Amino acid sequence: MFTRTSIFVAAVLLGGTVASQAATPPDYAIYIAHQDYVLMVDPATGNRTTIASTSVGSGDVVSGLRAVYLEDNDNLIGLMESGIYRFDTDTGDRVELIDFATASYFMTQKGGLAKEQDGSLLFTGTYDTPTNRGLLRGDLTAGTFVELSTPNTGSGETLYYPYGVVCTSAGNIYLADPGSGVIQVNPSTGERTMIASSSVGTGTFRGSYGMDYSEIDGLLYITSADEYVQSVDPNTGACVDVANNSVGTGPTLSYPRGITVSHDGSLLVLDGGEETLFRIDPATGNRTVISSTGTSPVGTGPDFFLTFGSFDSYLSLDEGGSMGGSDVSDWALY
Questions:
Q1: CA distance 20 to 232
Q2: End-to-end CA distance of the chain, in Å?
Q3: CA atoms of 148 and 301, how far apart (whole Å)
Q4: Digit-coded pLDDT (tens) for 14-59
Q5: What's the predicted TM-score (pTM) here?
Q6: Which residues have C-beta within 8 Å of that of residue 230, sequence separation ≥ 6?
Q7: Over the stretch 199-214, which tens digit does the pLDDT of each residue have?
Q8: Rounded to 5 degrees, what angle do the CA atoms 321, 121, 232 make?
């Protein structure tokens, strides 16, 4: 599996390091980041448990939590308004790794996480003022970060609301920007190139919120406007509808945002409108319910809708070290 965080659901391995997306993990759980909570979902039962919040675990107040990323040691890296934190998945305890305040930053909107091959952390967001939107690179050991691709660094496509971010095993970096499209970022210069939008690529582009990358088939998967989940070929910009209410069978989709590619290539998608976490077959679009607090509940525990407060929540989905980020500013994840 590519080493990176979505934006948004975090299905993560328990008791094992992920070698590749095709490998079957011995055991895993799904972690969902909301601004005040981290939920763990058991994919076998759909049961939901709060594993970290202001009242669960010790450390700073959990607030403005945008996204989570699973480390190999089963801890979570979390992006909050005030900084980057490490969460202990057993206790909910949290420790700050990067303090945005020391650099006069404050993450005001959105947020996605990805990890590069050298261990650097990529994160997106809107910070300080509405004009400061972009992609930043953090060093978790040194506790520092720099601007990689922002209005001040890099050239090319304008960034509006950078949301989902992925880094592939080949080192390619992609952003999902609801204001423009899917953008490739040069990891050295920060230069931005549009690969899929309403005017770039083939097929009908439906928008980009959450995003993840599959090392299995080499495609980007994005959640889009209304009920759409699409694939995007990063080499050609070809957009294909993977699942919607006319493609695939299963329950209705209405507000998919959080997305991550599972170890077997299936898609985990969190739909805020349906209050449901789906598993989607990318070949057919067929949908099955993992957990739901909607009209046909599946699993027990905190209610998705009550927990997230609204359909436009700060969510992140991640599995085995991948996170789609879709997870991030008053958008229900990636």
A1: 21
A2: 18
A3: 40
A4: 322 222 333 333 357 888 887 788 888 888 899 999 999 999 999 9
A5: 0.86
A6: 205, 206, 221, 222, 224, 239, 240, 241, 242
A7: 999 999 999 888 999 9
A8: 65
